[in-house]
Design goal:
Keywords: Phosphoprotein. Residues 1-61 form the HPt domain. The modification Phosphohistidine is found at residue 43. With 61 residues, this protein is mainly alpha-helical. Helix content is 84%, strand content 0%. The radius of gyration is 13 Å and the shape is elongated.
């Protein structure tokens, strides 16, 4: 596995965890900061995917 793919996988896991944690928080109470965290995680994953050439993943809405 090349170095960039390994970094992509590691960082994606971190952002997916933030996304998951945010979703669990929303079940208890919704606030603007939690929603922003979820959107930021999704946006970052999409951007990293496009940079890596994973266009199908980057085009998910």
């Amino acid at each position: 596995m090349n170095e960039y793919l390994s970094m992509f996988i590691d960082e994606t896991r971190e952002h997916l965890q933030a996304w998951s944690d945010g979703m669990l928080t929303l079940e208890k109470h919704a606030d603007a900061e939690t929603i922003a965290t979820i959107f930021r995680a999704a946006h970052t994953i999409k951007g990293m995917a496009m940079t890596m050439g994973f266009t199908r993943m980057g085009e998910v809405t």
